[in-house]
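Appendix B. One record, verbatim.
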Amino acid sequence: QVQLVESGGGLVQAGGSLRVSCAASGSIVSINEMGWYRQGPGKQRELVATITSSGRVNYADSVKGRFTISRDRAKNTVYLQMDSLNPDDTGVYYCNYKSFTPFMKLFGDYWGQGTQVTVSS
């Protein structure tokens, strides 16, 4: 089992910045992926950004150039720096952790409780 503890989020005006963090603990494996997903009001959960244990990153087109994902491997913590926020970025942001075997087979998929991000216009 992997436990995820999120922090950060809150209320910000359009154009502002926020940073959310997620610390993983428990059965951490060497090959993994951590990331952030979000669910806006009346919308389905969608990918925001992910980063693998090897450092490969992936962003949703809607956040490219505005959001930056990073991780501290020693602390098993992933960060999402969000700049130039707009009201469309409003939603609950969920941390995700995926475990992979050496043959890249997914065998664990964990979610945090979510943290609210609200961008006012």
